[in-house]
Amino acid sequence: MSAPDKNKKSRFHFEHWQLISLALVIFDAMAVNASFYIALWLRYDCQFWDIPYFYVDILKFFAPVYALICVIVFWRCKMYNTLWRYAGMHELYLALVATAVTLAFHVAGTVAIAHLANVDSYAPRMPITYYCIGISLQFILTMAARFSYRILLSLRKTDMERTRRVMVIGAGAAGQMIVRDLNSNQSRGGDRVYCIIDDNPNKWNRYLEGVPVVGGRMDIFSAVENYQIEKIVLAIPSATLQQKRELLSICGETGCELRQVTVLYQQMGQIVDASSIKEVSIEDLLGRESIKINMEEVFSFIKGKTILVTGGGGSIGSELCRQIAAHEAKTLIIFDIYENNAYDIQLELREKYPQLDLVTLIGSVRDSRRLDQIFDRYRPQLVFHAAAHKHVPLMEDSPCESVKNNVLGTYKTAFAAIKYGCERFVLISTDKAVNPTNVMGASKRLCEMVVQSFDKKIKSGQSALIPSMSSHTKMDGDTAACATEFVAVRFGNVLGSNGSVVPIFKRQIAKGGPVTVTHPDIIRYFMTVPEAVSLVLQAGVYARGGEIFVLDMGSPVKIDSLARNLIKLSGLKPDVDIKIEYTGLRPGEKLYEEKLMADEGLEKTANDLIYVGHPIDFDAEVFLERMHELREAAYANDENIRELIMDMAPTYHPDGDNLPEAHEKNLIDSNAALSGA
Asked: Where in the chain is CATH 3.40.50.720?
């Protein structure tokens, strides 16, 4: 066939929906008239011969006109190009309007025909019951044709996909939308809601979208058993964190897969459907409320400033960049050695904040010349130093690299901050810096001592005497009047960060186990990435120089319990479906993490969850002089560098794994101090 012939044929090609619409037009033309013929037949007790002949004649004459009128009205009400499979209240409203309009035409038409035929003397009008029955049948027939496919779908039992039995918690608006979406097969997820739980007794023993509300939270276990529930969806977006935690704790014991509705549709105007159902995160089961930060203070602190974030592509650094970008910084400089992460956050921020003056630079905090170049050109007023090696076992195997990147990198960045008149320098530290038993923790403790030493020098007016770690960069004479404020922020493990234990556990669960835990008694403090970053920003507001800010992270969490909760959240049973194996403590790892050392005093801040630990007294002069010795050992890759680290940071005990009682005592003391502060 030639090309013109192909084109000619394509002009007469109908889409599938157009064929369906044509079939509906033909059906409607017959159904609307059949409805009124049946109505007249029913009006006369199903006795056709009892119907007056002039009524039949009126219908015969008016039928083609009425069919045309109905098709036009239905078309104007979009009843031929609607996706009836997904129709809702709006489509039902249009159908009712179309029905009312056609009824008006039918009444007017039949009365007019009767008058023109001069039969009104003995038949002034068609019977009232005729109109009532006829229009009702018309509505039923026209709607049945449109909803028949949807009804068949809901009634069809599929053998190809096993239906999972779902319980929804919450009989409110969100719960109603979830039940409707799951049970209408629109989500195609193989899920069907069989029962609903709600704590409001007024809703018990009633039905929502045809599904029974079987009781309150105390009935969860019995409902799971009675209805053979496999999956539970928490559909109360407005519930507080404590309410969610209580409900999820109960549901976690049922062995069902847990999900929750996360969209705040009441505030955001969004429709809740199956796509709003997300996995229950382990953050929902942490033993404390989320940190509340006074963002007005942060806003005024950041607005209009040039800000540098080192390690800006990492988990903490990238979240810092997000929150800084949202608070109208003048210029945001992302500095990272890993170009892929830096590029990702750059693309994200440019898309979301096109008006932001964003600078993305690649380089290392070990490189003094690169730091000088950046500070000299951009003159950052605030520096958030997040660049660091953080992986404990890897740093145990490469202690010199930990010193080069963490300690010397911090030193060189802080040195550049003083040299170029930076207003404030915020160091990201860790609770592993408290009585460290590993090189990574010890290196972060040395970082804290670096910024504390610099703070002492500045306050004593001797900033120009701070020794340089590079021969090519020196302090200028103007730095004698430098007023850079140095502060460290110390927090625990960050959920969702690179190297966090939670993603590791999830991968192990997805593979069918085993889940590996180092020790059944190991405990850690946890916080989320946004919380950690909020603390860092708040610390920048509170900083006056030399402080170490400590977050009250609530009660520590047993890693063993964390692993078991994650298994339960996946709908599996620990030690039955997924085995838990204990592998023993890794090099440099300790059972307990502490938040502050015994000699660090505590002071409250305006935020009840943030405390200030004051500097431990040490000889800053001697410490800074010995930094040259540490640098030489690091770049010589000295295998005995641990001894030098221990000498410079007396709280570092590489054999601390053998002293769990001492760490436990300090843990109890630090918790007591935070509780009583």
From this structure: 164-280, 301-311+378-676
Cis peptide leading into residue 660 (ω within 30°): no
Angle at 169 between CA 164 and CA 171, to 5 degrees: 115
Q: Specify the long-range contacts of residues 376-381, CB closer than 8 Å, at least 24 apart.
A: 376/420, 378/306, 378/308, 378/331, 378/333, 379/306, 379/420, 379/421, 380/306, 380/307, 380/308, 380/331, 380/333, 380/417, 380/420, 380/422, 381/305, 381/306, 381/307, 381/422, 381/423, 381/424
Q: Which two tokens stand for residue 623?
A: 């410490």
Superfamily covering domain 164-280: NAD(P)-binding Rossmann-like Domain (3.40.50.720)
Domain 301-311+378-676 adopts which CATH fold? Rossmann fold (3.40.50)
List pLDDT tens digits, range 437-494.
899 999 999 999 999 999 888 888 887 788 888 766 777 655 545 788 898 888 777 6
Structure tokens at 340: 């892929």
DSSP SS3 for 41: helix
DSSP class per residue in 466-494: SPPSSTT----GGGGG---EEEEEE--EE
Compute φ and ψ for 443, nearest 5 degrees: -65, -35
- Residue 557's pLDDT band (boundaries 50, 70, 90)? confident
- What would you report as the CA-atom Rg of the chain, rounded to the nearest whole angstrom? 36
